[in-house]
Write a structure and sequence with these properties.
Elements: H1 6-16, E1 21-24, H2 32-41, E2 50-54, H3 59-67, E3 72-75, H4 80-96
Parallel strand pairs: 1-2, 2-3
Helix pairs in contact: 1-2
Length: 98
């Protein structure tokens, strides 16, 4: 499922309750850092893994992602394998709890 911006993402997360959330840093209106922070402050979604996606690979960018609660940080361009490994890493624990 895709969202147009951070506000749209928050609405879709509330409606669909995904098991893993991918959050691009560069989004209009509400950037990925702000969106991730709001997700993690919500008790209902605090445990939901948030993977930040960005073309920024600096130490500050990664640290800022961790500060707002992201669980992983993938730098663009990323490979299909790294994306699938990340999904498996976070989706597997959720699947085993069912």
């Amino acid at each position: 499922m895709l969202a147009e911006d951070g506000f749209d993402a928050l609405a879709k997360i509330a409606d669909h309750q995904p098991k893993v959330i991918f959050c691009d840093i560069m989004m209009p209106r509400l950037d990925g850092y702000q969106t991730c922070s709001l997700i993690k402050k919500n008790a209902r979604f605090k445990a939901t893994p948030v993977i930040m996606l960005s073309s920024k690979d600096g130490l500050f960018d990664r640290a800022r992602g961790r500060m707002v609660g992201s669980d992983q940080y993938l730098t663009k361009p990323f490979t299909k394998d790294s994306l699938l490994q990340t999904v498996a890493m976070f989706a597997a624990p959720a699947a085993s709890q069912i």
